[in-house]
Amino acid sequence: MLRAVNRILLALAGLVLLALGAAVLTGALDLQRHWGFTLPAAWPFDGPGDVLLGEADRRGWSGRGWWWPAVITALAVLVLLSLWWLLAQMRRRRLREVTVDSGDGATVVVRGRALEEALAAEARALAGVDHALVALTGRRSAPAARVVLTLAPHARPATALRGLGAEVLRHARTSVGLARLPAEVRLRAVRHRAERVG
What we know:
It contains 6 helices and 5 strands, in the order ααααββαββαβ. It has helices at residues 2-28, 31-34, 55-62, 67-90, 112-124, 157-176; strands spanning 97-101, 107-111, 129-138, 143-151, 183-189.
């Protein structure tokens, strides 16, 4: 859901900025006179000297009693929505527990942290992996894994990825009884000093 909200917000922001940019450029460069086309009567920028709100408009709006409360309310709502969106980006929702079908109609609950630690420990045992971090996201019945692998200087990324999929994730699917366990993997390299030859 957050991805869809992000795409909609980015698309709307892009359209608004594109429309404002086109309006400002058309007026500032006096394109309607140079290229010989006419603009609608409500077009805000008619020439290089025009402004969005003239002095008469500013005085007219600020003289009304509802103007300043409406502006402050709109800005407060905009700030609150921006803060909500920012916190939603930073919040990494982790699964506290994963439900496992025991096969006899009952479900068993496995702590998410325990499964994360088991996955990370097995991933650290792979050849070329120096450190591993695992976080489980998604739903209790359909978890997904976010894995960060820190590779040793001479490790092969393809080998580490194959080992992660063929061993670590397969073992986790088998032990928890999941049909699938999608994973997003990020690879990092260990910082090390340059080696001297000679």
